[in-house]
Design brief:
Cathepsin D, subunit A, domain 1; 7-stranded mixed β-sheet; 7 strands; 37% strand; Aspartic_peptidase_AS; disulfide bond; Peptidase_aspartic_dom_sf; aspartic-type endopeptidase activity
C-alpha cells in the first residue's frame, strides 16, 4: 500500500489511518494443503464454477497461467477431470484463443474463459483461466 502523508488537521490523519487499517483488515490468506508429487511438482485442489467442479492442479510457480481440460477435449486430455461450462451458472463466455508451450516440449491449446475459482474457501469471481482443447505431455500428472 502506498500512502501519502497529509498535513492537515488530526481528523484527516485519523481518517487516513482508518482507511489504511480497513484495507489491511481485508487482506486474506488461506492454507491450501499441497501434495508433493515425485519431488517434482505440488498438487492441490481448486473448485471452478457454481456449483463447484473440483480439479487437482499443479500449483506451478513457474507459470502464471491457470488452465483446465475442457469437456470438449477428446483423446489428448486422457483421464483428466474436465470443466463443463454448461454446468456452471456463473460462467460468462469469452472464447479468445489460448496457447502455451513449456520448456520440456509439453503444450496446451484452447480458449480463455472466466468463472468463480475457489482455493480452500477463498473465491475469486470472474477469474480468467484457459479451457484446454488439446494438450500434450501431461499424462504422468495425476488428477
Amino acid at each position: 500500500i502506498s500512502c501519502k502523508r497529509i498535513s492537515s488537521s488530526s481528523s484527516s490523519s485519523d481518517t487516513t489511518s482508518s482507511k489504511i487499517a480497513s484495507i489491511q483488515n481485508k487482506a486474506t490468506s488461506v492454507d491450501e494443503n499441497l501434495i508433493n508429487e515425485m519431488n517434482s511438482y505440488w498438487m492441490g485442489t481448486i473448485n471452478i464454477g457454481t456449483p463447484p467442479q473440483s480439479f487437482n492442479i499443479d500449483f506451478d510457480t513457474g507459470s502464471s497461467d491457470l488452465w483446465i481440460p475442457s469437456i470438449r477435449c477428446l483423446s489428448s486430455c486422457g483421464n483428466h477431470s474436465r470443466y463443463n461450462a454448461n454446468k456452471s451458472s456463473t460462467y460468462p463466455a469469452n472464447g479468445a484463443s489460448f496457447s502455451i508451450s513449456y520448456g520440456d516440449g509439453s503444450f496446451v491449446k484452447g480458449y480463455l474463459d472466466s468463472d468463480t475459482v475457489t482455493v480452500d474457501g477463498l473465491s475469486v469471481v470472474n477469474q480468467v483461466f484457459a479451457e484446454a482443447l488439446n494438450m500434450s505431455g501431461f499424462n504422468d500428472v495425476s488428477d
